[in-house]
Structures are given as C-alpha cells and as structure tokens.
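New here. Your pick:
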Amino acid sequence: MAEETSYKDKKVINIGTVCELTGLSERQIRYYEERKLIFPDRSKGKTRKYSFNDIESLMKIANMMEEGTQTYEIRQKMKKEKEIASKQAVRGEIQGQLNARFGVQDGRRFRS
C-alpha cells in the first residue's frame, strides 16, 4: 500500500505566496535555490511550487544567513540533519519490528 504524503510535504504553494509568508523576496528565494539549499518542484508551466516544509527551511536559511553563515556551511548542516533524521527513522522502524516480533508494547512484554 502506498504511503500517504503529509500535507507539509506537498509542493503546492507558489513563490508569491511564499514571499508573503516568509517576508523574503523572490530574488532571495531563487538565490537559495541556485545555491542548492531549497528544491522546489516545477509545474507544467515551469512555475515553482513549494511545500510548508520548504517554507520552514527557507526561514531557517534566512536566519542563518542573517547570522553570517555561508551558504556552503548551511548546505553541510542541512545535509547532516537530513542524515540524522534518516538514521533515526530507520532505528524507529527496526525497533517497531523488534517490538512486534518479541511482543513488546510500551517497554513491557505482552501476550499474544
């Protein structure tokens, strides 16, 4: 069965709305895209489409840029955060499988 995509991951927001929500200019957002910090989808008409998660990322990027962080450093930090999240997801899956296999629920063993 296909996994449902969270509404936060769906890329449906246009760049004008992103500008209104974030206070960033279209130029800033495009710059972040050029620097490989954000990856919008494109519609058939080549319009950029963003998700709510993209908007959160843009806010983090803008704050780090204001603090003087270079785009290379931001990209490295984001890459590391993504790797950590991926490892945690895998650990969670494995733990769930082990719990199911050995009858563990909320840290206590249960009878099946």
In short: The domain at 8-69 is CATH 1.10.1660.10 (Multidrug-efflux Transporter Regulator; Chain: A; Domain 2). The chain has a mean pLDDT of 89.
